[in-house]
Predict the structure.
Amino acid sequence: MGGAGLKELSWPGYRGRAGEWRLVTRLLRAAEAGRGGVLLIEGPSGMGKSRLLAEAIDAAAEHGFMIARGRADELRRLDPLAPLMSALGESARMWGLPAGVTPSNVSDLRMWLVDQLRTRLEERLVRGAMLVTLDDLQWADPLTLLALRSLVPDLASYPVVWMLARTSDDNADLNRLYDVLQQEGGSRVVLEPLGNDAISELAEDVLGGVPETGLLAQAAVAGGNPFLLVELLGGLRDEAAVELADGHARLVSERLPRLPRRVQVFARSSLDRLSPQARRLLQAAAVLGHSFSVDDLAELLEEPAGQLLTALEEALATQIVVSSDDKLAFRHHMLWQAVTDSLSPPVRRWLHLQAGEVLLKHGGSAVHAAAHFMVHARPGDERVLAGLDRAAREVLPSSPRTAADLAMRALDLTDVSDPARFDRTVTAVDALTATGQLSESAELARAGLGHAPPGQAPHLRHQLALNLLFNGRPEEALVEVESMLDQPDLSDDLRDAAQLTWFVVLIVRQDIWRGRERAEAILAARDHRGASALAGAHVLLRNVAWAEGRVADGLAHIREAARIAAGGSLGAHSVAPRLSLAICLVNVRQFKESEDVLQAVDEEIGAMGHTVQAAGAAFVRAYLRLVTGRLNDAAAEAKAGLEIADELGTHSFILIGVIVLAVVSLLRGDLPAAVHYIERYHVHATQGMAFPPAWVAWGTAVVAEAQGGPKEAMRVLRANCPDIRMWRWHLVVESNLAAWATRTALAAGDRPQARTIVSTIERLAHDNPDFPMLTRAAAHARGILHKDAAALGQAMAGFRDPWARASAAEDLGVLLAGTSGEPDHEAAIHGLDQALEGYEQMGALRDAARVRARLRRFGVRRRHWAQSSRPEAGWDSLTDTERSVATLVAQGLTNKQAGAQMFLSPHTVKYHLRQVFRKLDIGSRVELASIVAERASADGDARG
């Protein structure tokens, strides 16, 4: 911004905010250079937050910034994304629904809506710098806060400055947002009361003379609040209580306006001077909110807009309201509050109910009307309750938290004998479930069953069973779902859904054999059963098949379950069987197909709005990245999944993400972090936050071995594998467990257990020749047990996942080094070198350190691979993935577009981009593009 056109740090009408203004200009200058930034503003009403935003907008506009200006409103706090939508001039209603989604199958569109906003912002940001200001965020809706938590960090590399302002600090979600954005690098300021010098300057600005001591003493009652101070000084001037002489201002009257009630006094006196019609108009306008349209006001007053012109002009002359774009607005929140307070409670309540009725009559969104009903309705008012019902249904897909508030308020206003109470209970249960408030949802569902009309209880009972299941109470869930299945008059659709839930409960309880006969019967009568029951039967029989060692049969079952679910017939649950298929494909080392399935799932989640499964896709991709040796990508996906799950209250598959982070931490040599994640795993597992897949047993055992030794690890494994069937299941799920558990059992002095493991994996390999990962795993385990170098060499040559290959190389090296007679030191060193290279390439520093220690026993010292071949900073410090991300982003691609080309999720691209910026010590895509261009030019010159 170069200084031209910039205001000084202090100027008439804007005093005492020099430090804050420096932050604003610094951020705007950085944005002109391509760097984004965040300013988090807070302070009591009247401290100048809105004025600071306005001055920033003026300065940014003068320098060609795009401007997006929004404001939350107390009476629009139920409207999802209202501040952001108004700032960007967008409308979610104009977007419609995702392709393929209808009002009947819509589920959870939160992430889809946020993604639409991200796309539109990115489209604008490629054209230049932007300033986004959002005021009064204390009234923002939950989805706006969720969107900001995602968008602000995601777009940090673009030239966008976010200025967010709030008044109160009693909003836990908003506090959390401010904390997160501050941790991400945002600047946070609290607007404090003006100091004495600023008060004196402001008084001189308002009064036209240097204030004398007596006048300043009176001004002190404003407490340094700029708005109150200006109102006080203006009142003194207008009431001729101040005299100017020789450039000084002094008090000449003892009749002074009172503070801190000056604003109320000003508003009341202004209202009293108005005609009855104008006074009534302003009071009615206050009920419509901080800003209002003339049409809504006219309808509320039941008068044609043309007849209000005289009263409107009179109201505008008071300066209580001012013109704002295509609406009128109260000049300050304090004035709006003062006019609102001038209404008696009965009149205010009546006006709010009338305003709600007016908005409902418009035929648009019921959410705006519901804001008037939430506080002012009385029990039993059917019109109000119908409006709340409609608003809750309308907002459920986009903001379940708001829907839950609306539904619970409607229940509070509904008599226990009201026949409509049951339907409202169902809505409230659905909304609470969507927000992850499972205990509250289950409690409400139980209460609702007590007054369920005949034939309407099963749906609520099924929701109760699901809540109990996800809340870690599978035994109670089983009781509820079996009571449903025993009912002969249950509808086919609900019976199928209950049957699916029953199968899932049995899997969670590891009681799959109990469901085998029924699952086989359902498949035998497939033409007469619905999609839910069929998918559930296939999922359960997959587990049975793998526990019996029939890998191909199990894979066929899960493929069929995924095929059935792909038609969308399972609604919001359609994604889960396909995520399970992706996991199973990783289990059997069919990585390419697993990636393809995840790509399709991601597209469906985005297109169909299955937000509840968004975190699950990230967790499964984290597992895939871990097995393929991409630890950074695995950690990025897992952390992104945890963040999504935390934000949305959705916890499916969360245990995979936690264990991935535990294993990654251990591989990197960070045992405290690994232990932390294992502790978190146990918390989630006991709370029933997700289903513990069989794969996590190995992850917990690996950390247990590092923390407590081989015997502790075997204790964990025996708890998960009490019999041979469970050993078979776990060895199919994680074939690398065979060698690791064999080695650990031997170290624990339990050779019989080691023999059992080897015989089990060898039998699996023999019975499933089409799955070579079992053959290699059997060779690896056999080589360890029988000290068979040929078997270890066979395993090492065939493994597809890098950790297993390095592990086999290490075992071979150790075996050759310890061979009785004449050890083959050269071959041993070669094997250990191969292991070291494999571990270090994937970042398994703990394993690499162990191998280097083994090599030192031969007198061989190897430098740390990362230190010897890659610097810590600069272009050469980037990994291959990071360079690819940098190149694509430098070409102007968004994270989503870059991820599509590299088969990475946007979360992983964001993670790598942060690493690129850190290593290159830059903060914007502009700087990155310059560096990439310079590299390309240098490479071209070198080739020339």
